[in-house]
Amino acid sequence: MSQTNPTIVRTRFAPSPSGPLHVGGARTALFCWAYAKAHDGSFILRIEDTDQKRSSDAACQALMHDLRWLGIDWDEGPEFDGIGGGDFGPYFCSKRLDIYHKYIDQLIDEGKAYRAFETPQELDAARSDAKRQKHNYRYDRSALKLDQATIQAYLDEGRPYVVRFTLPNDEPILVRDEVRGEVTVDPKEMDDFVILKADGYPTYHFAVVIDDESMNITHIIRGQEHLNNTAKHVLLQDALGFRRPVFAHLSLIFNPDGSKMSKREKAKAARKAASAFLQSKPTEDVEAWLSHLTSFDMKIGDLVRNSQQRHLHLYQEVEHLFSPTDFRSFLDGDTDEPGIAHLIADDLGVDLPEIDVQDFRVSGFLPQVLVNYLALLGWSPGNDVEKFDHAFLIEHFDLDRIIKSHAKFDRDKLLAFNLDAIQAMSPKQFHDLWYAHCREYHPKFVEKLSPERFDMLAAANQSRSKTLDDTVKSSQFFIMADDAIEYEQTKAVRKALCNGDPSGYDHLAAIKPLLADLTDWTKDAIEPVVDKYSQEHANGKLGKVAQPLRIAVSGSTVSPAIFETLAILGREAVVNRITRCLANRQQFLDTSNA
Ligand code: GLU
User: Are strands 181-185 and 173-177 parallel, antiparallel or unpaired?
Assistant: First the structure.
């Protein structure tokens, strides 16, 4: 076994590759990384794939990609994108089975662990019995009563078994935690827990203890949900004569409304959208919709055809088709399958709350902003400092400023941080980033704009982009056919078009020929024409003219600055759209009065 100087800080992030990296995991990784870097130590990535059924290579690759995107590079770990490797590998639990077995044998030989041959059915029955009698289930240690000959006979016949750790005694287990202080756990809350599963893989509890010791981990920083597990880990460490690392358990992350931030929120949001959509639909339509959703291959085809690749990666992870029964159980709230949530959301055109790192990337948050924000979830540098970069974090991070109370995930604050960071960029930086984002997630949008128009739009959108994605959504009218613009039926639209004398519609009718006659179609040429018109016909109130123009060309009251908007669209589109808006006047009045 390799050894390092015990005074050198070594932290590790040990995700299970069973799904995307969520904000909680990313925050843990960040704190481990920052602590190691702040103390000239090493940050290790270890993939805990002890649950073979739930682990996948795709999830592993995705989470390494997410860490790299966040700038959380590992000094040791799986090799990926030019980093990784190291002297303490393998860095996948599934490749360390011989190491675990050596220690399992040692514990059995020392009488500190034993094989147990009960079948899952027998254990389930015992658990149900305990439940009926209203007491907590604890394994009854029947296996300890087996004599050597019986054990050998079972082994010879190839009977499956697990290995259980023998709890040493009933004395309270003391864990010293850097965040929570001294924590005492009552061993009566646990039993002789399994350390080796019937498939020959260690349980998480066993693998983590062996790996942390053999990789010389000095500091274990992880989520509070592991605090009770830590009690098991210290018992194992003592039984094996291992060193005790420093523990720091990070508080949970909550939404501002006090609910726990979890991936279930995506399911909840998708169910809400589905139930609004299905509310008044007859049964046949519901059936038709469900079978449309189940045609998974078609969905992939549609996404590619429409170049809506935002969530393609999520579908690709789910390699099977969902059946109508899967959708039904999802809609009934029996499952929260994220793949189904995304399918429904995409089909209905609704956004789901961002929970996983990849959600934030797709939504156009900047990695440095997300890192900055994640660092504040349970830590603060003091002196009211809130905005900082990776270098600042490395310089200032320490465990003594980790906060014990729950962290609150405030999306508005994150959006405000992102907006500020976008506004602080040079126009070129924003252009390049926006272009890369659009190419990746909205290729059709880029293809439909000429390079000059794309550049103009990037310049016009920078100051109003909270994320790289929101202005793509609100800029769709730039690439639409003139006759595809739909006018929003809102009070604001109605007011801008219909109120006053002259009304917005009247202004549109009057200004249309002035714009149509303009030979030089640039912002600098359009601006004086509209200004002069509003001086002469709208008491100098530019808004009275600009807002109807904005609605005519975009269908809504939201767009980049009006002169830029008109310049980017081009004269022909502007005139066509004004003509169409005017032609729609009566119909609009009828429907908005209805
Ligand atoms: N695989 C565990 C998890 O993802 C690791 C916990 C730990 O850091 O020990 O939660």
Answer: antiparallel
Distance 478 CA to ligand 1 centre (A): 47
How far apart (Å, rounded) are the C-alpha atoms in residues 560 and 459? 10
Q: pLDDT truncated to tens, each residue of the chain (594 aa)?
A: 445 556 799 999 999 998 889 999 999 999 999 999 999 999 999 999 999 888 888 889 989 999 999 999 999 999 999 999 999 999 999 999 999 999 999 999 999 999 999 999 999 999 999 999 998 899 999 999 999 999 999 999 999 999 999 999 889 999 999 999 999 999 888 999 999 999 999 999 999 999 999 999 999 999 999 999 999 999 999 999 999 999 999 999 998 888 888 888 889 999 999 999 999 889 888 888 888 887 755 444 444 444 344 444 444 444 456 778 888 999 999 999 877 888 888 888 888 899 999 999 989 999 999 999 999 999 999 999 999 999 999 999 999 999 999 999 999 999 999 999 999 999 999 999 999 999 988 899 999 999 999 999 999 999 999 999 999 999 999 999 999 999 998 999 999 999 999 999 999 999 999 999 999 999 999 999 999 999 999 999 999 999 999 999 999 999 999 999 999 999 999 999 999 999 998 887 777 665
Residue with the nearest Cα to atom 2 of ligand 1?
15
Dist. CA 226 → ligand 1 center (Å)? 8
Beta carbons within 8 Å of 477's beta carbon, 6+ residues apart: 485, 553, 554, 555, 556, 559
Write the burial class of residue 321 (CB in 10 Å: 0-12 exposed, 13-18 middle, 19+ buried): exposed
Pick the closest to residue 471 from 500, 438, 444, 448 (CA basis). 438
Report the atom number in ligand 1 closest to the C-alpha of 28: 8
Sorted by sequence, the CB contacts under 8 Å of residue 8 that are 6+ apart come out as: 40, 41, 42, 218
Cβ 408 under 6 angstroms from ligand 1? no
H/E stretch holding 542 reads: helix 542-554
Q: Where does residue 230 rank: exposed (0-12), middle (13-18), buried (19+ CB within 10 A)? A: buried
Query: Does the beta carbon of 226 sit less than 6 angstroms from any atom of ligand 1?
Result: yes
Q: Which residue has the tokens 């990789």?
A: 215
- Phi, psi at residue 493, to the nearest 5°? -65, -45
Ligand 1 pocket, 211 CB below 6 A? no
Regarding the beta carbon of 215 and ligand 1, being less than 6 Å apart is answered no
How many whole angstroms separate alpha carbon 515 and alpha carbon 520? 10
* Cα-based angle 261, 416, 475 (whole degrees, multiple of 5): 100
Domains in the chain and their CATH numbers? 96-250 (3.40.50.620), 264-354 (no CATH), 482-593 (1.10.10.350)
First to last CA, the chain: 79
What are the start-end ranges of the H helices in 110-203?
120-132, 148-156
